[in-house]
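Service request form, structural biology core

Requester: graduate student, group of Dr. S.
Request type: structure prediction, single chain
Budget code: on file
Notes: please return the result as structure tokens.

Sequence provided:
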Amino acid sequence: MLLTPQPTPIQEIHDAAFDRAGVRLLIKRLDLVHPVISGNKWYKLKYNLITAREHGIDTLLSFGGAYSNHIHALAGVGAEYGFNTIGVIRGEQHNPLNPTLQFAADRGMRLSYLNRADYRRKGSAAMIERLKAEFGDFYLIPEGGTNALAVKGCAEIIADIDQPFDVIACACGTAGTLSGLIVGLQGDRHALGLAVLKGAGFLRDEVKDLLAASGSPQPDNWRIELDYHFGGYAKTRPELLDFIRRFEAAHAIPLEPVYTGKLMFGLYNLLAAGRFQSGQTVLALHSGGLQARVGCGV
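Core staff response, request fulfilled:
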């Protein structure tokens, strides 16, 4: 099973606000790493796929919401690399399927649904046993694809960057990508996560736990900003959508409002607040997920 990422470019953003501040802004276009398994999802899934194949398991099961980038990518993985896939979706089934779930079904993913109360128990031993009784043996990948193997994969993102930078920034949902970046930096330079869900202070402990599970030291060269969730996960506001439209018109780089739009909005806001120093280079990670643009009003 060959899992080699396509080379992805780094694009510089020329913007008067950054120029005045003496700060350079780059974007690593991980959205171009694979046509379906895009962005950080490719890196998160890499070692999980290798491990499943090494153990002779041909069925992957994971969890997600109805518009999950992870479910979308997992379905693409199954179709491309010969795995059966099962997506356990939060909430009730609705027909017709939305574009994300229709894509997954078209790629052969078996969709199952859990009501919200059961979904909150999705990681419990009792729930896993219930799913095994229903589906048989499977390789379990957590919601969002985040585990120690995902951290190992995301650590390799740093090696794929061929330009100098001082700060690398990413959108932060489950903390897996941020944790991988911290590991990859090996204490050098800084990692910045911008949380995309409300009440995300717990993500700081998640990072520490993921670093420990990965056998990594606990460096202090990272932080998480909590003020750019726009009301919560997958929620948006007119000013965010307006920013995305203006950014795309100026720089011809597509964003979406769940992750990358909030990331870039936050970086501009932090710049205005004087949080970056003159002479610094900030590299933003475009984590893909552009399938979320469908129906979002961008």
